[in-house]
Amino acid sequence: xxxxxxxDIVIVGAGPVGLLLSVSLSRWGYKVRHIDNRPVPTATGRxxxxxPRSIEILKNMGLKRKIMAHNxxxxxxxxxxxxxxxxxxxxxxxxxxxxxxxxxxYPFTALLHQGLIERVLIEDIENNGTHVQxxxxxxxxxxxxxxxxxxxxxxxxxxxxxxxxxVRAKYLYSGEGARSFVRETLGxxxxxxxxxxxxxxxxxxxxxxxxxxxxxxxxxxxxxxxxMVIPRENNMxxxxxxxxxSTDPDFSPRKTATVEEVQAAAKRIFQPYYCTWDRVEWYSxxxxxxxxxxxxxxxxxxxxxxxxxxxxxxxxxxxxxxxFHDAINFAWKMHLxxxxxxxxxxxxxxxxxxxxxxxxxxxxxxxxxALFSQRQPTATEVDSAHNSHNNDEHDTKNxxxxxxxxxxEFTSGFGVAYNPNIFNHSSEHSxxxxxxxxxxxxxxxxxxxxxxxxxRVVDANVVHLENEIPFNGAFRLFIYxxxxxxxxxxxxxxxxxxxxxxxxxxxxxxxYESKERQRDNHHDSDNPHSRFFSIVLTLxxxxxxxxxxxxxxxxxxxxxxxxxxxxxxxxxxxxKCSAHAKVxxxxxxxxxxxxxxxxxxxxxVRLVEGQGTVEALEGYFAGFLNGMYDKQGKSTSRRxxxxxxxxxxxxxx
Length: 653
Ligand SMILES: Cc1cc2nc3c(=O)[nH]c(=O)nc-3n(C[C@H](O)[C@H](O)[C@H](O)COP(=O)(O)OP(=O)(O)OC[C@H]3O[C@@H](n4cnc5c(N)ncnc54)[C@H](O)[C@@H]3O)c2cc1C
Description:
Belongs to the PheA/TfdB FAD monooxygenase family. This protein is of the alpha/beta class. It has 4 domains: about 5-70 and about 110-190 and about 290-355, FAD/NAD(P)-binding domain (3-Layer(bba) Sandwich), CATH 3.50.50.60; about 195-285, 2-Layer Sandwich (D-Amino Acid Oxidase, Chain A, domain 2), CATH 3.30.9; about 375-390 and about 395-415, no CATH class; about 445-625, Phenol hydroxylase, C-terminal dimerisation domain (Glutaredoxin, 3-Layer(aba) Sandwich), CATH 3.40.30. It is about 25% helix and about 25% strand. The protein has helices at about 15-25, 50-60, 65-70, 115-125, 180-185, 260-270, 320-340, 350-375, 380-390, 400-410, 495-505, 510, 555, 580, 610-620; strands at about 5-10, 30-35, 50, 75, 75-85, 90-95, 110, 130-135, 135-145, 150-160, 165-175, 190-210, 215-220, 225-230, 235-245, 275-295, 300-305, 310, 455, 460-465, 475-480, 535-540, 560-565, 590-595, 600-605. The strands form 4 sheets. An 8-stranded mixed β-sheet has the order 6-5-13-14-15-12-16-18. A hairpin with a 3-residue loop joins strand 5 (about 75-85) and strand 6. It is globular and about 75 Å long. The two termini are about 40 Å apart. The protein binds flavin-adenine dinucleotide. Flavin-adenine dinucleotide binds near residues 15 and 114.
């Protein structure tokens, strides 16, 4: 009998969720079988908006530059147009698409079609040894014990040649989009949030018009109907038009409209402005129900994500962005399990965290869609929404204002805030310690850490602190030394105690040290000691005052990750050390902020003299470490097999 090929994971579907998962796992050295049933990648159309938080994620993965090289349109403001007498339209207001109060590094939405984004991801996957095979599909799968290390048996079929193949894998991940064979086979139901479904027409092309906001994102309500205008790359524009809704008396989900009908409808809506089409690049009609899958996995071996698990209206531009978050959330958790760092139970947090976000998004999308279809915001409401962020305590409790804020958080991606669990510390966590920082509005576990600028000591470059560690599957320990810790030799007792606690043989940090002790780590500033931890040290001092050789020996291996907190920040102008102030650290206090591999805060611990800080960190990590090494550093766990072992994990960024 021929040998059954073994993979760490089979990924079905090469849309945004499958591709970003494949990028991550291929970079980290996993053996990935990736298939898609379409003969060629997306050529044009489909989703198009990359939201501010997703831009940060792509930046963190070193992919942003390649995507921005396609010159996407960048949307900073949204314009609202409402009916005016005589069947015309008038602008009633504009607002920032990502308002100042969100403190986003990239406060805009980048708009370009899904195919261009997918192309960048596919190239990266191929550079890392995985090939997306087309047109292949999945015909059967089951989890069985024939090979306990590779418990998922998957039958694949080439749709050109009808060749079939059986493979075994540790995991199967379905990123098949809204119609999923895997989801249906598992019998997982989609629950429809809202019984109302919609049919949308979406058209990309180049228009000739005197409409003044054609380069802005606009919502236009008129006596002749409503459309959404979205500027795009290459002088293109996208128009969304609702063709039918199940509230219509003659509704059919199969209702459709021709290009000419949609163009004629747009022409009527744009009055008194003219609008003619030079070229149509893509046109599609697609029905949308707001649905969410009951489960994202049944056995923690077969997982699903992206549109397989949640669908919603395109109004908030979330399809691809939510898919990205699903992908990276699963990637690092699978990685920590397969590399022997964390116990298998952590995989349950994938569904818990991502389903909660999908639920929140659907609730929001539901209300948002209703608000825009039922009534238009007046200019006064828009102004009130716009001004409210400047003075939070004087907020008017106005439905529209509240919705506007929720909208901005969700559409920007900063609304992704995970609830307390083993990774996101809270007062309900089984481990408590007096040094754990609680109730800090800036460092809420489950949320993203605020961005800040610092000066890198080794080369005096001003850098984005939050992005200095790439998405490499490691936890990031952001050490804010605080004003009481001078960089001068002998004047940083708390830092020295932290370094000696972390490097002591029994510590969580030492237990997960790379086993390749002879490894040359001279050029590795991200993971010189351990694949599971990256350390970033920010000192309150001018760059020129910091001599890395004066710091505890451990930090000298992280020389490329030592920073001076010496830059002004407009948001905390009075602060002496703005990076510290932005995470809520004032006075002389320091802290260690543990950031999960996906950039969300896990826990923050005060930096003090003695061993308290390390004790608190130890307790946090003990919640999910798999005990692979005992306190003496001896391995206690089984080997994890092909690929994915920590020896295999490559840091390639
Ligand atoms: C026609 C259309 C138009 C859309 N327009 C918009 C829009 O205007 N704005 C917006 O925000 N969103 C839009 N979306 C939704 C958006 O594209 C998705 O939210 C986003 O792509 C989700 O990514 P995903 O990876 O989960 O799924 P998808 O991008 O759908 O990718 C799934 C992939 O899996 C493949 N696949 C499916 N089944 C199998 C199988 N059994 N075996 C192998 N491969 C399989 C598919 O061919 C596809 O390549 C549109 C979707 C469609 C289908």
